Amino acid sequence: MAGRMYPNLIKPLHITLVYFASETMENTVRLFFLLAGHAFLVLAIVGVFLPILPTTPFVIAASACYMRSSERFHAMLHKSKWFGPMLENWERDRSISLRSKIVAVGMIGASLIISFAFFSIPLFAMISATIACGAVSLYILTRPTGPPIHS
Question: Which of 22, 41, 129, 138 could form a disulfide with 62 if both were Cys (CB 3.0 to 4.6 A apart)?
């Protein structure tokens, strides 16, 4: 009934609600990527101190999330003394430094050996972990080798 009497009022209201809904969804997605970027960055920082966690993949994931959510955090990460050169290598030619490759694959292998030696793990889990870690190691090793990262 109101649509027949006031057709020009209903249409702008509908357009406004659709715009608001799409803007809210966009903000929700940006917030998700921002929080994911923070989580990946925390894991990367923990990986600097714990040899079990590789740093490089988490820094790359954080950069990708920040690129979709916050120009400020993306720029800050790229200007970082610790993570900037690593990201520069990755964005320039998708390369990983030889030192990063050796450390990453070595830590993956060490974590597998420690897990199997000190914990009671079912055979299926051991096989699954070995396949997953092997695939990640193969991916790391098949990336081009970039110039060394100087700290």
Answer: 41
